[in-house]
Fold:
Amino acid sequence: MKGLICLGIESTAHTFGAGIMDDSLKSKISNSYESPIRKKGKILANVKDSYTTEKGGIHPTEAKNHHIACKDKVVQDALDAAGLSMKDIDLISFSQSPGMAPCLVVGMEKAKALSAEYKKPIIGINHCIAHLEIGRVLCKCKDPVMLYASGANTQIIAYDGGKYRIFGETLDNGVGNFLDGFARHMGLGFPGGPKIYELALKGKEYIELPYVVKGMDVSFGGIQTNLKQKFDSGKFNVSDLCYSCQETVFAMLVEVAERAMAHCEKKELLLGGGVACNIRLQEMCKRMCAERNAECYIPPNSVMIDNGAMIAWEGLIEFKSRGGDDIGKLDIKPYERTDDVKVSWR
Ligand code: AMP
Ligand code: MG
Structure:
C-alpha cells in the first residue's frame, strides 16, 4: 500500500543528500535497506555526496560549490534508486536549519525549484529534530533522551513539556568539529573523527587530559589546546593521544546523557549524529544504559550521518500535522535552535 511519499533534501554542512520516504504503515521492508528494525516508515532511497578534504577542514564556499555541482545528480540518483519520477512525489522537504548559510541556501533553492516546477507542497525542517525522529521511527523507541553528537552540534535532547528541550550542550565546538580540528592539526584530512578512531585502536596508555563538564554542559576548546600542545611537544605517542582524547570526551558525553536520563526519568537513550557512528562511543553508551536498566538505541550509520531520508521523514510527520509552508515566505534559519521549534506532531 502506497502512502504519502516525500523527497527530503539535506544540505546543512558537508553533505548534500536526497532521501525518499513513504509513510505508509503497511509497506513491505525494502530489500535495499540494511536495517531489519523498521516497520513503519519506509526508506525508498537515501543518496548523498559529501565534501571531503585531504588536508584542512570544511571551507563554507567550497562546500557550497560542491553542493551546487552535485545537487541535480543526487536528486536524480535518489529518484532512480526508488524507481520513481517527480510525478510520484507528494511532498518536498528540505533542511532549513541550523547550518552553514551558503550550504543551506543550495538545498532550499533546489527544493523550491522542484516544488515550483512540479507543483508539489514544500516544507522546511529542523535538522537536529530530524535526527531524533528518524531514530525514533527506525528503532521503535518511544520517548528517548537523544545524545546528538555531530560535527557542528552536540546536544542532549529530550521531549518535555510539549517541546524538544536541550538538557545539555557544548559551550563551544561540536564534538565532531573538535575531533576534526585535532585531526587537522595532526595533518590528517576531513573528516577526522574516523581517523582518530583508527589511531586510538592502537593506543595503549591513557594520558591525562582536562575533563570539562560544567553543570549539564560540556566544552572542548581547552582540551583541544591541551592536545595540540602535547602533540607539538613530540613527547607523546600519537595513538595514545587519540585514545585518551576519545576516552575523555566520550566519558563527558556519556556523563551528561546519563544525568539527563535520570533527571527526566527516561529509560531510553537514542544516538544520532556522525560522531555517534564511533564504535567506542557506542560501547560506552551501551554500558551506561545496561548499568541503569535502560535501552540504548543505535540507528544505522546511514541515518546517523547527515542524510536526506531523515529530512523526508520529518517532512512527512510535520506535513500531516501542520501542512506545508508558503514557498514565497520560506527562508533558511541558520541559527534556529532545537527548542525554538513548535512540536505539532507529538
Ligand atoms: P555529521 O555532522 O552528523 O554528519 O557528522 C560529521 C562528523 O562526524 C565529523 O566531524 C566526523 O569527523 C564525525 N565522524 C564520522 N564518523 C566518525 C567516527 N567513526 N568516529 C568519530 N567521529 C566520526
Ligand atoms: Mg547532523
About this structure: The CA atoms of residues 21 and 43 lie 5 Å apart.
